[in-house]
Amino acid sequence: MAPCTEMAGRALLVAVLCCGNLVAALPDVIRIGGLFHPADDRQEVAFRYAVERINDDRTILPRSRLSAQIEKISPQDSFHASKRVCHLLRSGVAAIFGPQSGQTASHVQSICDTMEIPHLETRWDYRLRRESCLVNLYPHPTALSKAYVDLVRAWGWRSFTIIYESNEGLVRLQELLKAHGPSEFPITVRQLGEGADYRPLLKQIKNSAESHIVLDCNTERIYDVLKQAQQIGMMSDYHSYLITSLDLHSVDLEEFKYGGTNITALRLVDPEKPELQKVVRNWVYGELRYGRKLDLPPPRDNLTFIKTETALMYDAVHLFAKALHDLDSSQRIDIKPLSCDAVDTWPHGYSLINYMKIVEMQGLTGVIKFDNQGFRSNFVLDIVELSKDGLKKIGTWNSTEGVNFTRTYGEAYTQIVESLQNKTFVVTTILSSPYCMRKDSSEKLSGNAQFEGYGLDLVHEISKILGFNYTFKLVPDGRYGSLNRETKEWDGMMKELLDQKADIAIADLTITYDREQAVDFTMPFMNLGISILYRKPIKQPPNLFSFLSPLSLDVWIYMATAYLGVSVLLFILARFTPYEWQNPHPCNPNPGHLENQFTLLNCMWFAIGSLMQQGCDFLPKAVSTRMVAGMWWFFTLIMISSYTANLAAFLTVERMDSPIESAEDLAKQTKIKYGALKGGSTAAFFRDSNFSTYQRMWSFMESARPSVFTSSNMEGVERVVKGKGNYAFLMESTSIEYVIERNCELTQVGGLLDSKGYGIAMPPNSPYRTAISGAVLKLQEEGKLHILKTRWWKEKRGGGACRDDTSKSSSAANELGLANVGGVFVVLMGGMGVACVIAVCEFVWKSRKVAMEERLDSFPEQNRVVVQQHQCNGSLLKTSGQ
């Protein structure tokens, strides 16, 4: 409905202007009243020179001249203000401009509403009414507050502190307070005191570690607040200030340009606009012509100095003149004196007000345009930021598109890199191999020279790219940084950053959610995960009967059963089929009996011969027995081939039995203790995990006595070495890789339990994160990160000590000793021994049988046979009957 109403109003205006039968007539002199306080000298000058500029411009009100009627009033004297307004009305003014004080302005507006005289204001006022005679050129409070909301959201501020001077400040920021819901990070609201000492309040804010400040106070107090903030250390590189005043360009910020603090504000007036510079120059020269001096605060050589309300006063006079000019084209206007004691009103007052609200013009404060409610809610603000060269425009804001940063990424990055030149960073770290270690030297070293490691080399490479200096400092408590859930306070390197005692933290510092919420991290310079450090399993001595290992016990039993089954089946079928019964004497066509060679023992001999791939001196002749033999041969072919292939691996590969192979194995047992670094990210991973296995492991670690947690990674490594297989240490895979390169007794068990990265940490709101992340990315693309890791993991400080052991073990794996194949010799000797025993038994049995048949003494007969059998004169043996 709003656009339609506005379009209808404009159409009505055009229709009225097209009516040629109306006669326009304005008096030669049009009086306008201006109410100013003693401190409003510059607004008074703007008012007078705006009138002068319009009188010189013959395109506006060509047949009339404006006359400025100026009255001086006290900001607190409402009664005097009312009397001066009535005096102006009696003189026949067509409009009242000002004053700036809210206390007096309300009385002036009340009189103007009663007399239907246009009242133009240029001050911030939240008590605007649509039906009044007031026309306020100051941006509407709701729209202005929305600009602050959009800017805070564009920056991604999750928490901040609002410092306000008066209750009007809370009204000015009400949209910002509403937009920050209760579910988000809390915001703090603090009020400036009445006195001039703001340090106690600022110290409280500093102790809260809040670095985002929204400052809403009178323009004259901005310098004092920033100066005292600088004195207590709240103007560092990591602090950001959003100044709600539209007149920050009028504040002397020379002392804060080189501090690195992000100071940002919005402005309605662009001091660098040529039109504005020309107007202000005319004011200065005009005042000099009249023997007056325009008082400009520092910098005094800057003729572009002008406050927002001053520029709005200049635009307000032009808006009135243009609206009166348009109204004069449509109707006859009479301007007459009015008395506050009478009931008369000016009949053209509301018409002139309506014309002013539909007029659109270009002024010193940009496009002047009112919405359908009569408020100035559609305007453009410049976003300015303090740099070494003063306030610079970095973007714009408007009610339709919101924030639009005009500064490119390249320009912002260049500005950050330039600010880094020759800047000295304090780098906090912790002694942790190979990231930071003390140098082995007989001389006393100090400063950066006493340390070496991957972290120092990485910072050095980054400094060569960005051009900053650095000083390393060990963290006092020797901790990485963990959050106390009860006190909500951090320790270790995280505390150093939050207290701004350090600018950078580098170590094997894991990027976690909690840490990311507290400080800023660069992109990871190393990716890793949690794994298990454990003692290498002891080599098991070869089993005497390791030749049985290729097949399980079940398979050996099934093979023996198959062997017996095939032998019995072959015996039965050979007895059943007629084709296996043969004539023992082929020369006798009518034998008295037939012979079958497949006795039970022969069947077993045939099966074992086939299994051993040796065969025998008789073969099946019937189809059925040949089928049995063929299937048995196929079975033995597959089994012997599989056995042979698997036997090579079992005999040549050393058996390394480890009691654990993964985290699940650890969780299932209680004999092997396991722990992690106390207060580290690994312990936090198990503590916060929702996975049942990891929850069970965390419960075990917490309840274990003595404690399984360690104060450092090296202590954990020592416990693994001394634990003799009864302790495992959970730590980052990169640290495990470093340890096992130097300690050949240890190894990594299982894969990675998670995926994360190490990053360089900085205080929150650090402006250098993007630049340092870019440097890390460049080092990664150039392969220098890999070179650094190879240097400190595999080359320096004993790296590569276990390579020879690995090569020796791999070459020795192909050699077979007696221990590997000793069981085969045992079986051979055992078989030979059994054969000898059976031969003796056969001999004794046969000798006794012959002696019994021939009724001889068995002992002499055995001696005779033994002597004859061992004579080397042939293979013939004489029987006793010969």
From TrEMBL:
Pfam families, alphabetized: ANF_receptor, Lig_chan, Lig_chan-Glu_bd
Domain Ionotropic glutamate receptor L-glutamate and glycine-binding, first and last residues per copy: 434-499
Site (Interaction with the cone snail toxin Con-ikot-ikot): 687, 778
Keywords: Cell membrane, Disulfide bond, Glycoprotein, Ion channel, Ion transport, Ligand-gated ion channel, Membrane, Postsynaptic cell membrane, Receptor, Signal, Synapse, Transmembrane, Transmembrane helix, Transport
Cysteine-cysteine disulfides: 86-340, 744-802
Keyword S-adenosyl-L-methionine: no
CDD domains: PBP1_iGluR_Kainate
Residues covered by the Ionotropic glutamate receptor C-terminal domain: 424-795
Residues noted as binding L-glutamate in the record, renumbered to the chain: 510, 515, 681-682, 732
Membrane topology: Multi-pass membrane protein
Signal peptide segment: 1-25
Annotated family: Belongs to the glutamate-gated ion channel (TC 1.A.10.1) family.
UniProt protein name: Glutamate receptor 1
Top-level taxonomy: Eukaryota, Metazoa, Ecdysozoa, Arthropoda, Hexapoda
